[in-house]
Amino acid sequence: MLHKTRGIVLRTVKYGDTSVIVGIFTELFGLQSYIVNGVRSSKPKAAKGNLLQPGNILEMVVYHHEVKNLHRIAEFKLGYIYTALHYNVVKNTIALYLIELLQKSLKQPEQHLELYYFTENTLQLLDGSPTAVIANLPLFYTLKLAEFLGFRLNGHFSEYTPYLDLQEGTFTYLPPHHTDHLDPEYSELTDRLIQCSEVQQLAAISMTKEKRRKLLYAYLDFLRLHMPDFTELHSPPILHEILDA
Predict the structure, then answer these.
(1) What is the DSSP string of 116-143?
(2) What is the pTM of this model?
(3) DSSP letters along 50-96, please?
(4) Cα distance between residue 125 and residue 233, in whole Å
(5) CA-to-CA distance for 137 and 58, rounded, in angstroms?
(6) What is the pLDDT of residues 187-231, one digit of tens each?
(7) Is 107 helix (H, G, I), strand (E, B) or coil?
(8) Distances, alpha carbon 119 to alpha carbons 126, 141, 163, 212, 214, in Å
């Protein structure tokens, strides 16, 4: 049965001589895999293979069968045309981090409408925003992704709750009796990130490269604590080298 849906390309793998298998986070069906024939040949259709770069937002008409793991795409075109994301090294590195994080977090073909719309909007804002805004974007997106997947941090930073317990996912009065927690400085920064209602507000949160690095790894540890099959990402070291502001 044919369906119209938007989707974000997560991964493209060569298949046979002329085809690819594409992992796409779709609006309607969540994470799905599609085989696309003829996009690696010398024929005109092959030019469409360039549209299947990770991070690209597509408008698609797809065949979908609930019992199948591999589907086909009847038609696809760009749903949004980037002006800088694929050419600006900082923006491209951040985008690749977001894409890898999605790959590690989405395991089942379940619809995640809020996460899908948030991710699409984030990629578009990343494409058009200045560096001052996007430096904290990986931190903000990681926290929001955890929230959309059901792992929301509870409470807020205050003089009465100055520690963030990552195991319990809550701000507490005393430091917990384990190492999976943040001290008051990092707990306050986390609360400020949580309270941002839109990406543009991130520019007001100033922090060093080292603080961003420590927070990002803490947030990834938080996901690992609550998602047993969450595995290590390869992109953070590259991300920290690029984000040297």
Answers:
(1) HHHHHHHHHHHHHS-HHHHTTHHHHHHH
(2) 0.93
(3) GGG-TT-EEEEEEE--TT-SEEEEEEEEESS--SSTTT-HHHHHHHH
(4) 23
(5) 22
(6) 999 999 999 998 889 999 999 999 999 999 999 999 999 998 899
(7) coil
(8) 10, 8, 29, 20, 23
